[in-house]
Amino acid sequence: MKPIRPVGIVGYGGYVPAYRIKASEIGRMWGNDGCALPIIEKAVAGPDEDMTTIAYEAARYALQRAGIDPHEIGAVFIGSESKPYAVKPSGTIVAEALGIGSQLLAADYEFACKAGTEAFQTCIGLVSSGMAKYAMAIGADTAQGKPADELEYTAASGGAAFVFGLKSDETVAYVEGSCSYTTDTADFWRRAGQPYPAHFGRFTGKPAYFRHVITAARMLMEELGLGPEDFDWAVFHQPNAKFPIKAAKMLGIPTEKLEPGLLVRYIGNTYSGSSPLGLAATLDVARPGDRILMVSYGSGAGSDAFSFIVQDAIEEKRPLAPPIRAFIARKKYVDYASYARFRGKLLR
Amino acid sequence: MKPIAAILGVGCTKVGEHWERSLLDLAIEACEKALEDAGNPPVRALYVGNAASELMNEQGNISALLADALALDGVKAVEVRAGDASGSLAIHQACLDASFSRGQEGAILVCGVEKMTDVMAPEVARIQMLFEDSRSTFHSGVTIYGLCALLTSLYMSTYGVSYEDIVLLAVNDHKNAANNPYAQYPFPITVETVLSSPLVADPIRLFDTAGIGDGAAAIVLKGPEGARSSSDTPVAVLASEVATDKVNICEREDLLALRSLRLAAGKALGRAGVGLDRLSFIELHNTTSVIGILSLEALGLAEPGKGVDLLKEGAVAIGGRWPVNTMGGLKGRGHPWGATGVYQVVEAVWQLRGEAGKNQVDGAEIGLTSNMCGLGSISCVHVLARWEVMA
After folding, report:
1. Over 70: is that where the pLDDT of B194 sits?
2. A152 is known as an active-site residue
């Protein structure tokens, strides 16, 4: 899919909470000392944080870089599976807090870990068609992992926001094309009213993550007439450290091209925030003219693939907000007891 | 040396995580390959070995289902269940059928199949324990690898053997699996690979355990009469014997003696009229390495406590005195429970027909396969030979 009129990113920003818990601390809690751990540590939302505060922080930085009048934003979409309200759009809270006007379309997206990139596509469509001058897409989560489950080691908090507008000298990167691949694949799910998701172990790998990520990436490359060597950087959804590296290898993309956006080892899987944060971290280092491949993955299952070309405005706008690496470096370790209190795992 | 049956064709699927294929898909592939290998003879009976299709795949009555799927109209169909010995017991029943119904037209198709990835690993571990005594062992909460860990520790302390030496069997399996296109884990490993893999049940490490995999294997057999006219390369079944032991291992006099295997092997070698010295290769049941080593001892290939010496001396390697698990065994080829016993016979047939590729045992004439349920509550042994050996 290529937009009729070219669309680009006017501003971007990300946010990762300061608290960290080491995977080894979770392992210690559950008697898994010495077992192979999927990551080093994960970001934990503090007691006064939820998905909307994380989305707000990321969006604030995106607006700082965009340098536009917030009232010109016609739509705010948030992709998440940690919505504070089952019924009440999170976008309403974030938009009002940001000072975006009320002549606004707002909605929350749900597609497991790819809900954020679905918001990208909707924003691109609205802007390209002229229905909105600017539109904001946010991927953010305070992901849930059942105590002692494998997911608890990786389910983390964080998010990133992107403001889309028509391609101009003001856009930091423009969308070369995007496509999606979706099937009915029940690898991971959470039914209404359940506090934690369930998953089907190793089924989440080959027939789920890899099938969708690889297919969407190849579809995009075919549509744009590009090969893996044409991309300077690549960002994949990061449920653990192993999967994105393996996906890159399967596509013939060297691991070095993942490095700037490969954040999972230090912040965990931020679900809807995962690939958007990876894109933001890659924009933090990319040079004008670079081409970035981004492929999200959402269980259930589907992948959205994007190709972005970085523009000159990146140099000027990049310093206007903190880089993602600054949030990663800013950390305070908590033990399992504090983590359990912060994440509401103890009943009072 | 008089055969009880002749194997006319064999076939199998690759063992692995076949996410997009059903129990039936796998069984059909193996059966069609075996039938084609046998020259598509008319089939008069179907025996299916499977451990847990009701619990793992929500499907019972699979022999009729498979007969229907293969369009074997009106055929006799029998399902055989004995945990991870189901496959060899299905072959055993088919051999009985062949000898009981001498002179009857048509071949007998045997299929072992297991689709394990339809449930998650903890459920697999639970179901595996249902093949033990539910009144004692199962309800204690121990897993099969927990029991193997106790046996491994006991073996190590009784005979002063190191774990490093015990896992040489896993290393042997992987080396052979590397040349088997149907193996689940076709790559070599070292002792260090095993020792650095995650702990499953002290002292057992992940790379000392048979993995979870899907697979199906099939053979076509008939009575021995006229086997030569039915096939250019028939393989003789010289013996098929079954024996049992205390299901609750705590009630066994000697925990380190796999009595059911010793009894079944003794009967089988006696029936076949061959001594251990005539065996060209052996397929063992090694859920973990220690069970394989205890099997070597139960078969009489080594004195108690000396099974590891065969590993250290290289006697079990291809080219050694008694090559073991020539296509990868349970560790390397994989262990889809109800299919394992049939895979062993399929692989033995490859060896005896000279079709084992890089793993061919030179001059292979007679082979023995040993398959068991759990820790040997039931064992089934087959002795197979090249047809020419009997001339």
Report:
1. yes
2. no
